[in-house]
## 1
Amino acid sequence: MKHLALIPGDGIGKEVTEVGMDIIDAISEISSFKYDAELFDIGSERYLRSGELITEEDFDDLGKKDAIYFGAIGDPRVRPGVLEKGILLNMRSRFDQYINLRPVTSWHPFVPLKKHFDFDICFLRENTEDFYMGAGGTFSNGKDATVNIKRRLYDLRVDIHTESSSDDVFAFELGMLSRKGVERFADHAFMTAVKRNEKKITLVDKANVCTSIYGMQREIFSGKAEEYGIELECMYVDAMAMAMVVRPHTFGTVAVPNLFGDILTDLGAQLQGGLGMGASGNINPTGVSMFEPIHGSAPDIAGQGKANPIAAVLAAKMMLDHLGHEDMGTMIQDAVRRCLDDGKYTADLGGKLTTRQMGAEIRKEILGAKR
Ligand code: NAD
Ligand code: IPM
Ligand code: MN
């Protein structure tokens, strides 16, 4: 018996996790996978009602679960960052889910590049550090800069803006990597490559500009490459964006720091047909992991039944894989593929189905496969 936490969140997060839970339910009807799910009221509605984002009690309860199934967060009524940082990033860091696993594969006929390439990329996005550490703020150069970092930033800017006046205001956001953080990330990446039987891994960075953080990251990855006997390919993120489109089949395991990973995996979702197709797992290899579509709350289509639930359904698949039911995960993906083959899909892929209709078709495929 697995204990799941369900956090639908905001916007289409609610619509797509409803479908995802239906699919998990169908799986439990036909297999030995048994579960209970506790619904958590976490998201913009609660925040607007009570000012609460996520409480210590929530964290305690979530921490007891076998996995968390998450929809999306984000609401135009709330200032950008409040919900995103206060809820989603908070959970990722509190549960130390330091790997964000985001597969990018040409597994179905609607992959736009499918005519040209077959690819199976395993993106591992570092999920706790880099520019996501929350180390930011503002200062003005008229004030006495007592903290070294302020002085340093100020000096750098003054070199460029020689005419800066005392009322200039600066904003900064620091990207930081810790040696321990990079080491555990690298170990996970190399072990993934070993499991996938690959001879090479790709590390993405911008070591030609952000020399301190990504220089250290390269050094650590090089050491690990020798240790694991696996070749290390280093790519600058700009070139990587291009290469993902022109030679996606040449990549296997790809390790990427947090911010660039966020960006490249939206591109990765589009390589698979769109944001409605990209799933992810926030993995703590020894703790509670959280599974979610990579897309957001999509306020532009929320509440209209237009959202493609496949990303959320595939996130449920990843959750079942993670919980040791890979056969059931495969069954879900096969069911989705049969729907796509049969012309059953939502408007983003050029189809006619609503979110719920799409879910009902996938469910039917799963129940039918058993018969
Ligand atoms: P978004 O991913 O919500 O939407 C981008 C575009 O893709 C929109 O046009 C949307 O309609 C479309 N889209 C996304 N998912 C779709 C689906 N399943 N089916 C069909 N179309 C889909 O990104 P955004 O508009 O930049 O952000 C909206 C809000 O979501 C913001 O508040 C943002 O911070 C938040 N956000 C949250 C997450 C998350 O919870 N993991 C991820 C990304 C963005
Ligand atoms: C994602 C999202 C989040 C991120 C935001 C909402 C904090 O874009 O899951 O990809 O940047 O990681
Ligand atoms: Mn993102």
## 2
Amino acid sequence: MESNMENSRNNRITAEEIALQYKYMEQIKELNQEYILKYGRQKLAFLQSFGCQMNENDSEKLSGMLEIMGYTQTGKLDDCDLVIFNTCCVRENAELKVYGHLGSLKALKNRKPDMIIAVCGCMMQQKDVVEHIKGKYRQVDLIFGTHNLHKFPELLNRALETDALVADVESSEGSIAEGVPIRRGQGVKAWLTIMYGCNNFCSYCIVPYVRGRERSRQIADIVNEARLLGHQGFREITLLGQNVNSYGLDLKDGSSFADLLRSLEDVEGIDRIRFMTSHPKDLSEDLILAMRDCKKVCEHLHLPVQAGSNTILQEMNRKYTREYYFGLADKIRSQIPDISLTTDIIVGYPGESDEDFKQTLDLIEKVRFDYVYTFLYSKRTGTPAAKKEDQVSEQVKKERFNALLALQNRIGKELNEPLAGKIVEVLAEGPSKNSITTLAGRTRTNKIVNFKGSPELAGRLVKVRITNAGTWSLEGSLE
Ligand code: SAH
Ligand code: SF4
Ligand code: F3S
């Protein structure tokens, strides 16, 4: 037991280190206050996320630190004193976007030489990217990675003191920083990261290389954060991790993800609990039972299958077969009949033949997902799949993407249609995208519902009768 305790403490950033960062935040706050007295305006920061929910949750930590340091956030690049791009490298497109934005900042930096341009996040955990930025994007002042995000105040302080580039990226396996301030956007839903990193090394994926090994936060720390969220008025939490089903394995004290869900059931103020992402190979029977029994855990499971052909699944190093996946889906549905299932699919993995792709379509037809997120395979340097010679052409990838989309649109519509006339529980979130007199919310199964109602209902669970069920969203009226 003793050594286990040590184990979980060892990868935790010390309280002294975090306290030091608070000192740097105070220091910058003082500078920013002097600035207000001198120029009659607050310093402005522009922060943009390019990645997944975990990347967004990291940005919320940057926001928390910015707030303490006295920065006001702005959506206008032209006005700001500090730009932060929190990057992603899961697909090439995500990287190209960042380079595009950095390029277009050059002129602004020439006009405003005191402006600080910072880039952080997953992309920076790759050495060649940092070198490329150093060589080609001289306008950048500060580079840091995912493992040292908590050191942002210290690094910003250094960047403010020098004209030279400050670059600090730790290549460690990663650690856990508790106590970093966090500022979430307004709303009723909050992200809550429960673990960092990934051990799976799917052969196409860059995430394990840039996010380090799996490390789980302690259940008590997660429950405390959830309590705080409930207290702050959030009604729904989504627990985040690259593979939440292996939560707790590294703690070696017997904690499991199912235990965590059970521990969160009593958190006051929180009505709904969601989580992502689940790896099929680690989804335990106990978890299925916890999902069935915990009233706050919603009837939705995002369970990426990635491909339908056993050959490709094996090449991808996913460690399960299509038959195993069918069996798993059946088991889940037998315990939670109304559950909605969503998935991720990659089309055009190297060597994927027409026959392999047919197997993917067949799997989709058989499982009948409520929604499928489809990605064109993107070559990621450093991953095993990138070295393969039989890469699939862009043309074929796009054709497969379209075929899959057409099939899924049909299935999605067929699954939604029977909802017409039914009464569902909706968590009202706020005005819908298209009209201020319409509210938007989601069902427990994570489907979007638009309905007429007063904005004061935001944050409340309401009963809505579905009047129209489309492929992408539902319309309804308050009961
Ligand atoms: N940990 C999660 C999510 C990882 S990234 C999981 O295992 O499901 C989100 C999705 O991006 C993945 O599910 C996968 O479908 C997709 N993805 C990852 N690497 C990719 C690549 N090189 N090309 C295209 N899509 C990729
Ligand atoms: Fe990538 Fe696979 Fe890990 Fe998901 S489980 S992050 S796809 S390596
Ligand atoms: Fe997320 Fe992209 Fe990093 S998907 S974990 S921000 S590489």
